[in-house]
Write a structure and sequence with these properties.
Elements: E1 10-12, H1 14-18, E2 26-29, H2 39-47, E3 53-56, H3 61-69, E4 73-78, H4 90-98, E5 103-105, H5 108-119, E6 125-127, H6 135-138, E7 143-146, E8 153-157, E9 162-173, E10 178-181, H7 187-192, E11 194-205, E12 216-219, E13 226-229, H8 247-255, H9 261-264, H10 274-279, H11 284-289, H12 302-311, E14 319-321, H13 327-338, E15 345-348, E16 353-354, H14 366-373, E17 376-377, H15 380-388, E18 398-399, E19 402-404, E20 409-410, E21 413-415, E22 421-423, H16 430-433, E23 440-444, E24 452-453, H17 468-471, E25 481-485, E26 488-492, E27 499-504, H18 510-515, E28 523-529, H19 535-545, H20 558-588
Parallel strand pairs: 1-13, 2-3, 2-9, 3-4, 4-5, 9-11, 11-13, 14-15, 18-23, 19-24, 23-25, 27-28
Antiparallel strand pairs: 6-8, 7-8, 9-10, 10-12, 15-16, 16-17, 19-20, 21-22, 25-26, 26-27
Length: 589
Amino acid sequence: MSLVKPNRPRFTDVEGLAAMVGQGDSFGVGGHHFARLPIALLRAIARSGIKDLRYVCWAGGLPLELLLEADAVAEIDLCFSSLDIFGLPPRFRAAAETRAIPVRDWTALAMIQALRAAQQNLPSMPFQLPQGSDMLARVPTASAAPDPIAGTATGFIPPLRLDTFVVHAQRADESGNVQIIGPRALDFAMAGAARQVLVTVEEIVPVGALRHDGRQSILTRNQVSAVALAPGGAYPASCLPFYVTDYQRLSAAFATRETPLVDNLCLPSEGVPEPVQKAAEVRAETVLAMPALAHGETKASVDEIIAARIAAELDNESFASAGAVSPLANVAYRLAKATHAPDMIIATMSCGHLDIAPSPMILSLIESLDCETAVAHAGGDDTYSTYYQAGAVTHEIVGAAQVDRRGRVNTIALRKPSGGIIRLPGQGGMADVANMHRDYLLYIPRHSVQSLVDEVEIVSSARGLLTSAEREPMGYRTGKALVFTDLCVFRLDRTSRELTVIETMPGVTHQQIRDATGFAVTFDAGCRQISRPSNDTLAVLRNRIDPLGLRRLEFVSAKERGALIAEILAADRTMVERCIAAQQDIARS
């Protein structure tokens, strides 16, 4: 399959792009989470009647849900699938749990290197093995072999070629060069691995106009097959600086099962709603200058105690990355940077936003504020080779569905007593980076015998390299390995390689921990009680860092989640309206 494209792409409309997708194509989607998703094009593809697509992407999420609803997908290759704050994608779960569609779980690094092999026209690419996990056996066509020069055990992966890659971007010029502003996800690697690249854009501008914009990435016209003008083409996902994610619209779409997603996600006849356009104009300095909210001096909740305790692990030398969907990690990082660790580096959007300011976590504004305050923007493939594989990231605090006595994690699937499975989101990039971070930090929001088990069925990630003797030859620094729960803090002991309780939550007894744990619990001789956060710390956390209480989403049951999301969205709407009004006042003054 030739990846060489014409020097000048074809200009068409969205339906014209959809008609270029072939039956049975290996099909990739650009964007990241709810950012720059090609929703208009995906809707057109879903309506086209196309079948038997092999969906290949780091993430499933909303794009995959649209295509599954249309019965357009025959196979799925991914690392992770989530609807962010809205939880697990129901169609993906149903397909995986019934085994109606084959699902292949990749490690992020294996997928990146497979795309790079296709992009660079190589027969294979090496990658660091996900030591301690079961993931190598789950990655299609991956194998381990001695490196031909050093003799070190190394992973190898053949090219992952795509027939079609679809992506939404901010602008194209009249010759077909495409501009991407902000994090690039895996867009460049996927475009390089694809036979055809189909792009929707917000604007088409004259040749030469793109060179005047700062902090951008360009897919040059010879990398692009066809372009369609589609203002609002990512809505209700975001496309900065034009509009933010419309969480209200997404919530309504996910809650309504009677109307198909393909109809629920359509762009309103009047275009992108004005509030989400105005929200994209709000600047970080405006938000930071606004008075903090005041929630009162109530007793610290469990989620606040854990957030403050994790924040205490960070200092001015920390480089902390927030992964796929982790409000608690974001809160802890921002709290540390806003209090005792102002010089630490925070990277969000899976390292796409580098060195952000600790702005408030207002749901609709998180992406735009991080995008504005970031020192640099990057792609997921870039950040692996530049930061993760180099061992530069000190912390990435990751939530886990299930952890065993040896600190091994399962985020792939759980077996029901009936014999069926409960599909989980997947490991994302954790199988790779669990060994690359200096400090290995996990959290289990609800400590139970189901979440803390003797042995996980699937080891999706683990600290396989634990001691200095194991880590230093690989170029990785040695740090702590901790698991935080709502009852205690475990340390992964380097000698026994098993979890030991080193701290307990206030008021929690040793017996409570024993009763709630699925393995025999060992308590460290110096085990102590976690200190409650100070009033000053709580004030910063509640009133400045997480005024909506997004951290709570990780500590409620599935039944409680809907009501909490409704509460958060109502508070988010009020805060965004305040921010828009303040920004307009500044513009008038």
